[in-house]
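Field: sequence (string)
Field: structure_tokens (string)

Example rows 1 and 2, in order.
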Amino acid sequence: MLTALIPVFSIILLGYLCKRFGFLRQPFWIGAEQLTYFVLFPALLFEKLAAASFDISTALPMALSLILTILSLSLLLFLLRPVTGLSGPSFSSAFQGGVRFNTFVALAGVSALLGGSGLTLAAVLLLGMIPLINLLCVITLARFGSGQQTRIGGIFLEILRNPLILACLVGFSYNLSPLPLPRGMFLIFDILGKAALPMGLLAVGAGLRIETLKSSGRGVILSSLIKLVLFPLFTAGFCQLLQVQGEPRAVALIFSAVPTAVSAFVLARQLGGDTDLMASIVTIQTVLSVATMPLMLEVLGATV
């Protein structure tokens, strides 16, 4: 497990070092993140879903196990809020830290441990999880953040515009259609998709703010315990309840064990969350996950 994940975290470290020592300037990283999010990852997800052969009856319980985990932990966070002493904006950032997942790290981990068939299942997961998580986080920020109130219609519009969701929907629709699979077109998507994982991991490393490691507090501790410990434990429990086994279970556990998403910082800044706390949560969880991710996956048996 550790051997498979070492390259993932090594590339994240390389991205941080390139940014830290000025080998690649800030404008490069802004463009790299946009290219990865809007082009490379959508190409990867479309190619995996459009040409895949999978049993939807197997994929649905896998997705449901994570959906139930997210809803359960969201409820737990809201129940704990009165005793945490966190302000509204700080709670909204802790909430994001507890329920969001880093898509770049998750897909890289799935690829390293399971290969192409795992990536296909991961694409199915994203189709259900991204809308749910974004909806919960935006509603929480609209309620507790210090920014302007966000209309529900605007939330759904942003979800529909999400390039990862669009790629999954188009790929899944193409898979179900009788249309042929032009080899040339899929070679293009395959080449773009192969660049997605390393570029995404480099961008994750470049986004880390190591200076925030000196900051700690209830928000960091709460979100990290929930995301890095309870999230995989709850997922394993729901997988057991729903009889999710083999590769689908491994994919669900990998997604559950990754740190929170760098994009949480952007959302916190847009909707009035605690951006300093969010930056600390993202960085500290990413650093901690070097140890917690292989440990949790090994303990919970994320193998096929």
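Row 2 begins here:
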Amino acid sequence: MNTYKKIPSTPKKTGSLTKKRRFNMNLSEAKVQLNSFLERNDPEKMLAKNPLDAYVGIRGNSYYVTLGESTEKNSAGEAKVSIDLWYEYWNRKEFVYAISLAYDEEPDFFSDFPEYSGWLKNETHEKIWKLNIIPPVNEFVFQKDKAGIIYCSVYIDGKDEYSSLAMFFNDEKIKRIIQRHSIEFETNDVSWITERMQQTLARIGQGEYREQMKNLWNGSCAVTGCDIQEALIASHAKPWKNCSDEERIDPHNGLLLSANLDALFDKGLITFDEEWKILFASPEIEEKCKKLGIDSLMRLNPPKSLSERDKNKIEFFLQIHRTMVFNQ
């Protein structure tokens, strides 16, 4: 997080700003890095355009994109609390990512995190608070920059970004804070960012959606019967961006599939017909899928416990997948 308050992504180039930036990656590189992070954590890889132009700012040797903002504003009309994704260059040696709650005013922060004073008693924590050392990954840490902006951050594990995001967004306290400050993510072109993060959390086993889908399919792949939980992904049939809130968490809206099948289903390269037999997008795709052990004899194999009512609901969404995803 570093030491300078947010400024626009196309700031007036003063001599001071130029001096502070000369050791950093340039703005274009930062956008590429932030886009890359969002793409890696976006199951649908929907990056048709760069959504960061109006939302990337510079603070010393850090760049960020704002994912959500509170409806509460300060006297300058800016959000009192925001959720930011950061791309940082510490000591001109190490690049890191962080997801943060950023507070414009101290009273709001102290109200939400009364434990901060005890946290500071540890010498290591005090150095983190003063931005003197890079924090450890996958821990909630407090930070304060010279402009007075205060953060509750999770630094992201580069080897397991999903888990770090899950740790932040699924934390009960973070959920309450988002609700308390009415933080909204439906912000113009960046609305899809948080939607995809929420979807990611569901897909890697952090959400109610996946758990309910596991119950429908007895915790096994809907095609192969594989029950290795680490290999199973809950994939939506009707695209997330086209779903109502209710449809997004409906376990009938999708299939529990092993990773290879999920990737193909997610991209519309395969689907299942009215009799739940596998369909391929083209003969070429069918031929290539044989190398993955996927062939035309495969089909959905519902467990005996799956009721006719459940089957009908699943088929409703499969029909949408066939027309909206498979044929595109």
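free_text_note (row 2): Residues 308-326 form the longest helix (19 residues).
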